[in-house]
């Protein structure tokens, strides 16, 4: 997918926190570029349609040049009609003390019907980013319910974890975030994820030569993996603007490409690095011609392998749990 002159973007959970931080940036052109006109379709539950309509009024008041129209609905079939990009944000966020796994059953019921609506109504080239948690398994459910849409069009957001890892490294090393390259988030968007710096560089120097292992193991990895809980604790609500920003980054890179660098995204595994085929797992990826490609041939030492396996085991357990609930079609 390259950016077209005009695209339909569907956002679910439009009246929520992330929706409010996301919609104005999409409408301003930050996601698809200033030359792509945007038709926004906002999906909400009936009780929140009025609030989404209020957001639509504010979008109008911004007079954004790329924004062609905003429609608000509580019907998935209309919301996904002709969608080129679908951002599945709408779901219940966790509150203090909950693990993301606790949301599995609460949110799983949303993504089957939305997958079917995407299958039946979206544009042929639709690209889907699942943000709502548990994002990887929700993406698996949506993909399983959209048999006519190629699997590689369904992705889950781990870009926020990636950005968090880059920011933590830049802060530690006293460099700019733009100087940090080659970071990877592997596995699940949960505390089991593995933020990996094995192949990372800062200003061209291997990160492994700039920081000690003890810091990586006891501070960096848990800090990044548990950052969502830290935000909930400190802010009193789950991350919103940073999540919206990561969603913009993910779709912008998917559409416009990532020449000469890689990032992280939850994509359907093709079996690379021993991750079972079909699971939606985070990998090092580059975007080429509108497709995410898993970077091949990277060094995965034993320490990394064990951590990837642990997170993948959690993804397998989530998959098995939703399969028992009959959510995989
Ligand atoms: P929120 O509660 O502020 O908003 C969620 C919105 O979704 C609400 O307005 C709700 O009415 C709506 N909604 C619920 N069911 C829906 C449905 N079936 N169709 C359409 N809309 C529906 O929550 P938030 O803070 O915006 O977070 C949304 C989701 O994103 C949560 O699951 C959260 O855990 C997740 N999240 C993921 C990441 C990530 O990195 N992947 C980061 C932050 C948050
Ligand atoms: C995050 O990583 O900030 C989100 O997934 C919210 C959460 O529940 O951790």
From TrEMBL:
The protein's name in its UniProt record: Malate dehydrogenase
Enzyme class: oxidoreductase
Sample GO molecular function, one term: L-malate dehydrogenase (NAD+) activity
Domain Lactate/malate dehydrogenase N-terminal: 8-147
Binding site for substrate: 94, 100, 133, 164
Catalyzed chemical reaction(s): (S)-malate + NAD(+) = oxaloacetate + NADH + H(+)
Binding site for NAD(+): 13-19, 107, 114, 131-133
Active-site residues annotated for this sequence: 189
Domain Lactate/malate dehydrogenase C-terminal intervals: 158-320
UniProt signal peptide: none
GO BP terms, alphabetized: malate metabolic process; tricarboxylic acid cycle
Alphabetic keyword roster: NAD, Oxidoreductase, Tricarboxylic acid cycle
Matching InterPro entries: L-lactate/malate_DH, Lactate/malate_DH_C, Lactate/malate_DH_N, Lactate_DH/Glyco_Ohase_4_C, Malate_DH_AS, Malate_DH_type2, NAD(P)-bd_dom_sf
Family annotation (NCBIfam families): MalateDH-SF1, PRK05442.1
Family: Belongs to the LDH/MDH superfamily. MDH type 2 family.
Task of the protein: Catalyzes the reversible oxidation of malate to oxaloacetate.
Coiled-coil intervals, chain numbering: none
rRNA processing found in the keyword field: no
Pfam family, one: Ldh_1_C
Entry EC number(s): 1.1.1.37
């Amino acid at each position: 997918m390259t950016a077209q002159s005009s695209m339909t973007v569907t956002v679910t959970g439009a009246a929520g926190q992330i929706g409010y931080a996301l919609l104005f940036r999409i409408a301003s052109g930050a996601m698809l570029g200033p030359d792509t006109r945007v038709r926004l379709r906002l999906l909400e539950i009936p009780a929140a349609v009025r609030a989404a309509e209020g957001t639509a009024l504010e979008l109008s008041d911004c007079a954004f040049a790329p924004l062609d129209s905003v429609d608000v609905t509580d019907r998935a079939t209309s919301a996904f009609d002709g969608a080129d990009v679908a951002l599945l944000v709408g779901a219940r966020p966790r509150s203090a003390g909950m693990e993301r796994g606790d949301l599995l059953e609460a949110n799983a019921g949303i993504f089957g019907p939305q997958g079917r609506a995407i299958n039946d109504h979206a544009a042929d080239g639709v690209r889907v980013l699942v943000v709502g948690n548990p994002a990887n398994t929700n993406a698996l459910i949506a993909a399983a319910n959209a048999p006519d849409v190629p699997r590689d069009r369904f992705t889950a957001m781990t870009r926020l974890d990636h950005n968090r890892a880059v920011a933590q490294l830049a802060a530690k090393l006293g460099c700019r975030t733009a100087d940090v390259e080659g970071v990877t988030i592997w596995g699940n968007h949960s505390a089991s994820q593995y933020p990996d710096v094995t192949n990372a560089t800062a200003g061209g120097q291997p990160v492994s030569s700039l920081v000690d292992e003890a810091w990586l193991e006891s501070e960096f990895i848990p800090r990044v993996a548990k950052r969502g809980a830290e935000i909930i604790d400190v802010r009193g609500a789950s991350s919103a603007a940073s999540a919206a920003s990561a969603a913009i980054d993910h779709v912008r890179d998917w559409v416009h490409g990532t020449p000469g660098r890689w990032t992280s995204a939850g994509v359907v595994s093709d079996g690379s690095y021993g991750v079972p085929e079909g699971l939606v797992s985070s990998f090092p990826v580059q975007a080429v011609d509108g497709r995410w490609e898993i970077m091949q041939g990277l060094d995965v030492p034993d320490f990394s392998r064990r951590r990837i396996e642990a997170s993948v085991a959690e993804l397998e357990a989530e998959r098995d749990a939703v399969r028992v609930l009959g959510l995989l079609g």
